[in-house]
Each structure stands twice: as C-alpha cells, then as structure tokens.
Amino acid sequence: GNHEGALKQYQQCMYTLAENAIAAEDFELAAGYLSLIADYDNAESLRQKSVYLSAMQRKEDGDLSAAATLFASVPDYEDAALQADACYDAYYQEAYAQAQLAMDEKRYGDAVAALEYVSRDNMSEKYADIDDMYNRANYEYANALYADKKPYEALKYYNNILDYKDVRSEKLDRVCYRIL
Length: 180
Prior knowledge:
The protein is mainly alpha-helical. The chain is built from nine helices and no strands.
C-alpha cells in the first residue's frame, strides 16, 4: 500500500485534537498531543503556551507544586521562570519556616510533621536543603523515641529514611526490629 502522506495526516490529526483541547481549555491534554508532533508547523510554541496555561490553571486552583513544576518545564516561555520561582516560594515558604524553627528548637517530631506532605521533587535552589532537613528530623526523632523506650513508635520514622546514614545497616538491625 501507499503510505505517503500518512505522517502528515497523523500530524494534522494531532494538531486538530490539540486545537480542540485548547478550545475546551484542557491545556494539559493539548500539550500532550503537541508533544507528539514537535516538528510540525508551530506545534512546539503552541505546546509551550499550553503548558504555561495549564500551569496558570494549577496555580489558580492552589496546586502550587504542580504549577511550579509545569512553569519550570517551559522556562523560556514568557515569564514562566519567574512564575516557577514564585510558586515554589509560596509552596515551600511556610513549611520550610516551620520546620527550620522546629529544628532549631530540637522539636524534631514537629519538623517531620511540617515537611511530611511537602513534595521534595523539583525543589528550587532556595529550598534545596529540605530533603536533608526532613531526613535529619526523622533520624533525630526516631533516635529520641528509641532512647525513650519507644522503639515501635521510632520504627515509623526510621522507615521514612531507610537509606539515610546507618538506618538500614544498624538502626533497623536491632533485636527488637529483627522479629518483625
């Protein structure tokens, strides 16, 4: 059979699907279609615009982590890099401040609680130490619980950080954990 023009037809179909998704304000779906045909017409610039508009929707919905990640994925589109920084700041600022204060006051359980549900993926430079802070807080809190004769409460916090320091090799090799 003759398959000449099949690629062009595919690209046109994907482009039309993307246009329909944009008309329906489903920018994430549009970006997905456009990513499949980056070399076609103005698909790449339209994809970046769709990602940007999707990020704006996420930001308006209060999903700052997702918005920041989307903005960061198109840093050269309009003010996306600034938007990414602003979303990251708004998302991390409060949790970071609470955790930092708790760490300074050696309230490690409170530091874990402040960071527990904060995404630690794609962090900006400003908050790059959140992962270390979270690991250290879990470690110190687990050690304190263990020292306070609460090994099974400590286990939860050790399990949060299996690959940190000596957790897997020593802490979880204690007799009380071997029987579990």
